From TrEMBL:
It comes from Rhynchospora pubera. This is Tonoplast monosaccharide transporter2. PROSITE patterns: MFS, SUGAR_TRANSPORT_1, SUGAR_TRANSPORT_2. Belongs to the major facilitator superfamily. Sugar transporter (TC 2.A.1.1) family. The lineage of its organism: Eukaryota, Viridiplantae, Streptophyta, Embryophyta, Tracheophyta. It comes from the Eukaryota. GO terms for molecular function: transmembrane transporter activity.
Amino acid sequence: MAGSVLVAIAASIGNLLQGWDNATIAGAVLYIKKEFNLESEPMIEGLIVATSLIGATIITTFSGAVSDSVGRRPMLIASSILYFISGLIMLWSPNVYILLLARLIDGFGIGLAVTLVPVYISETAPAEIRGLLNTLPQFSGSGGMFLSYCMVFGVSLMPRPEWRTMLGVLVIPSLLYFALTIFYLPESPRWLVSKGKMAEAKRVLQGLRGREDVSGEMALLVEGLEVGGDTEIEEYIIEPPDAFTEETEQDDTEKIKLYGPGAGLSWVARPVKGQSTLASAVSLVSRQGTVPLMDPIVPLFGSVHEKAPELLGSMRSTLFPNFGSMFSMAEQHPRPDNWDEESQREGEGEGEEEGYGSDNVGGESDDNLQSPLLSRQATSMEGKEISAAQGNSSLFQVGPNGEAVSGMGIGGGWQLAWKWSEVDGEFKRIYLHQEGAGGAGSVRGSFVSVPGGEMPEESVGYIQAAALVSQPALFSKDLMGQNPVGPAMVHPAETAVKGPKWKDLLEPGVTRALIVGIGIQILQQFAGINGVLYYTPQILEQAGVDVLLSNMGMSSDSASILISALTTLLMLPSIGVAMRLMDFSGRRFLLLATIPILIASLIILVIVNLFDFGMVVHAILSTISVIVYFCVFVMGFGPIPNILCAEIFPTRVRGVCIAICALTFWVGDIIVTYTLPMMLNAIGLAGVFGIYAIVCVVAFAFVYLRVPETKGMPLEVISEFFAVGAKQA
């Protein structure tokens, strides 16, 4: 997965520049107000710092819709250019008005990076390590702050510190970011598929995954174009092909034949009588069981992870070692005589590559848009499951590190298939998730039980799988008379011209996801991070740190900058721990585990400011509380809201939805920043931290009742779960 990791690191440099700018302006403003005589103009001083926030808020309002239209990569390129231009202008800045203009342009670059980098990483990262890679922006931002503080500290030690140099240095890393966005970063494969650029999307995906067979994930990206839909939860017991003979076919009419791309029977599925774990989890809460206020989406997601937290979301999962061999007979079937070689050839034919239609819609090689794009099957039989794999592969096959390697695998233990029945003209897309494995009458290795399920005691081996069954994204009933076969019934280019529709935001699943995204962003801003940052220099001053540094010969300004650098440095190890746990313990777990610690830290700050414990005790308790707050915040409430917002929306409206969430973030940031001084004057530090503690209590309840666990799940499956949960609610 080196390709995906390197791309995520390169993209997160945009957040490094944001952190760099935040720290630089905090140090430079100490010298700016002296040169322009702003000591008596606190409004202008505040505008110099806050103009970038205003710029970020302005550009965020339309960045999502534009990125859905022109792509993620062009917007990241624009971000790097804006960073570069603002750095040049700040390096010049003859007066305060030019400086304000530069800060506004800088805010435009910040807004694009903060909004779109998490989206870009989510759309390019494998499901197994998506949380780790999407924590990189938080790490890069804090790392950029630390490096910038070190640079500003060095400049502050000069006889005549030059603030233009501090701000203008931004030009150098912005040039690196520009070069990477132009020459290294590919376009998001999900965006390419949404525009019908299938061949380019496959090339990008092969580079990101480091393997040739990405047919299953390509099919998943096509299915991700759907917004909404009527999804049902079913349960299957999947058996090897030798379990299905002519005699058993006559005796057991409930069995479903599952076919791969090769000739002959590949798999057999038997519908399970009774509810699956997924369905029972939703119905339990929808009937107002143990937690009446809990959103059904939460237990629905939780049913996938329960009893196996160490399996899902970890790329080191062993899953079930017999999956690769259980259906080995499927690999022995020869291809039919009329096998469509076009779907297997590479680089042959003008305008078409590796079985995918041309990117040029309307070209000669793309005039038959009804032809299947990802899988082709000559045999026509009732009740078939059409695998996404090209060539022969086994269902639920895993690699040595637990990752899915078969064409059917789409990440996180999920598989993709299609079912088509000629009798009733039914064509369905199925997301399969293994719920148990065993053989010879046992369920060895099973980690989720199925209420009411009947296991076939005579089976040599079987897999128990829950299924999300829905209409394919690009299905057209008008084509059924032409007997098409394959996951893509209509070329994505036919739907690309539609783009995102505002009415899609009213789909129940999308609306549910927006509630989660907007709510978590609002609560993050009002959880107290800005207040604690504002109070940190005062706390460390009370602890005597500034006196110690002054005795070493530093000026008060240099001592203040060094204190901020050391505070930022403490965050980096904590973010590293969060990166390790994000895909192992999960987003929801980290939030529920860290928010109580935030509450405790804030309560201690309230107590030490209400009662007189003496200068030494006050300084010690305050310093420890602030350090704990910082370290715990960056492990949970810092990165996770952006990670969740980049995961929970369908592809077609992802840009618009995350822009709405990002706009909420920036508006909340501005409100908190400007109301903090007034709150300090009105209710004091104890009152401010008391309000923050109350907000954190509300945040804990919100996360527990509304925020699902999304670790290790493909983005398209997450959107499907929101649709199912909204339907149940």
